[in-house]
Design a protein that fits this description.
- The protein contains seven helices and six strands; from the N terminus they run E-H-H-E-H-H-E-H-H-E-E-E-H.
- It is α+β, with helices and mostly antiparallel strands and 152 residues long.
- The strands form two sheets. The chain has a four-stranded antiparallel beta sheet, with helices on both faces. It has a two-stranded antiparallel sheet with strand order 4-5.
- The protein binds inosine-5'-diphosphate and magnesium ion (MG).
Length: 152
Amino acid sequence: MKERCLVLIKPDALEKRITGLVVDRLERLELDIVAAKTLAATEDLIRKHYAHLAGKPFLESTVHYMMGDYNHIANHKIIAFVFQGEDAVKKIRTALGATNPDNAAPDTIRGSFGKFDKVADVVYNCVHASDSAQDAEREIALWFKPGEVLDA
Ligand code: IDP
Ligand code: MG
């Protein structure tokens, strides 16, 4: 089914300057990029985005991570994309690999470029992708204005 998926290039990937490598892997999936922008993510936006982490012990560290606090990223910079196409969510999440890079297959994006800081309990996994077509729509509405997303 044709669907959309939000992808966020997280601050650790920006610090490592691997946005191009990540997008290169995702472009191989033959989906369409229908929106892209660099933005300053507010704390409110990040908390809404990660609402499902409420009550988790790593919520606060994840918010700090996404604000760029651990990666010397000024202005809370994140790069956001919307990909669209057949089974976009499944294809992208398969390319990303498991949430924790220690558990991600070596040939996945997170397995290749991510790292887990066990002591601080921060999962530096480089990229976010929506986990369902339904959640993608919720997330896209948070990160993009309607006119910023084209139909492929
Ligand atoms: P996902 O990013 O693979 O969809 P979620 O369970 O939705 O995984 O978690 C959202 C984000 O929260 C992860 O990408 C990661 O940044 C952080 N996170 C998830 N689990 C852990 C954990 O056990 N320790 C620290 N951070 C975590
Ligand atoms: Mg998720």
